Amino acid sequence: MATMEVAIVGVEKRLWSGEASFVSARTVDGDIGLLPGHQPMIAALDEAGVVRIDPSEGESFHAAVFGGFLSVTAESVTILAELAEMAEEVDVAAARDELQRAEGGGDDFDDAAAAAARARARLRAAGESPDR
Amino acid sequence: MAASLRVLRRRIRSTKNIAQITKAMEMVAASRIVKAQARVHAARPYSDEFTHVLKTAAKAGASDHPLLVAREEPGRTGVLVVTSDRGLCGGYNANVLREAERLMRELDSAGKEPQLFVIGGKGTAYFRFRKRDMAGQWTGFSEVPDYPNATRAADTMTACFLAGSAETVQGESEDEQQGSSSGSGEGSGEGGSSRSSSFVPPEEAEGLDGVDELHVVYTAFNSLASQRVTSSQIAPLELEEDDESSDGESDGSGSGDSQERQAEYEFEPEPEVLFDRLMPKYLRARVFAALLDAAASESAARQRAMKAATDNANDLVDNLTREANQARQAQITQEISEIVGGANALAE
Predict the structure, then answer these.
(1) pTM
(2) CB pairs under 8 A between A and B
(3) Residues A96 and A73 in one domain
(4) A98 and A83 both lie in a single domain
(5) What are phi and psi of B243, to 5 degrees?
(6) ipTM for the whole predicted complex goes beyond 0.90
(7) Which of A26, A28, A70 to mutate against chain B (most B CBs within 10 Å)?
(8) CATH fold of the domain at B20-179+191-305
């Protein structure tokens, strides 16, 4: 099966890189799925979103990506993020707390909404359901 | 004589204490360099990829974006000076400040009034003492900067840059308009993302005078042995790696049309909108990279300064010990001659 080079690059370090057969992400305009040989593109990702990667070896995994965008060339997909967390790095309990606090409403509505979106992305990346 | 021997011993003791402290600081700095160097290294993929993406987007038709086009008759110019919070790092801050002064004189004579943004306690103290106005100042993170630190500084400058030198940075009314126009019907739970998609000037930028150019003065970390004070323009963007002549400000926009596009790129959203989103992030990345470099350079400068201080202290201890020995011997000789003299006097 065809594969492509995929890398998740955070501001501070490269989080993950390797061969993968499928990448899915949510851009500002909607979800996209990327297969090898996709047309070159540059897209801005949702301010707080989840990226799914199916590596060519091993199980597929998720990562929470904040303030990112992605660049696709014929052979590679690069996800650049101001902040990114791999699914296993997500502190589920902390994210749930954060979500509850944010939904409780802060002084600043916009800040609270952004915080809630971030917490949801973390939970979804970790495979937890944000809404219970 | 006895008094001077005591004085010498006291000096030896205190010098040894100083040497111990400087030695400890040297070792702390040495371990910091390693970490800081690793961070500089680890942050490189991001800025490399980012530059690549920006170039691609610029070529594909966003080349008239304000970030890329040098403004005609630039007026005010923002200068970010990156210094350290603490001293005891040799000529590190002096070098940065000298370069900053040089740059500002140059800008001034070119008719661009410099507007100061300062990072680091030493820099703010320097300019405050000289009663120079600072549009922004940030302290407390010079040794271990993190990305939110860079974001605060960069966003303030971005706001000034977007306003342009004819205007001052506007407050709330403007961003609400932007926020609502870009709200693209996300799920109800995603309410926050539509707003934060457009650039929101931070509160501290409100009311600041706008600028037409942004420069940054910092100490670039080449290697352990060499750090160089560097001043570079970060906006409008010079796509420096692309061209041989990096000093032409309009290179980025000029080369956009002439170079053939290698591949048809798809953009989501369209290049102009995408560029609006990328620009603040780009400046953040540039400022962050400068901060990381400066942090590594600061530690290197401190390590060198502290090593020199430790060596000097040890030399001093050696000399003082020699003097003390002489004084001690002279004292003993004197005592013997006194005893002999006394015994002789009694024998007669």
Answers:
(1) 0.82
(2) 112
(3) no
(4) no
(5) -115, 160
(6) no
(7) A28
(8) Pyruvate Kinase; Chain: A, domain 1 (3.40.1380)
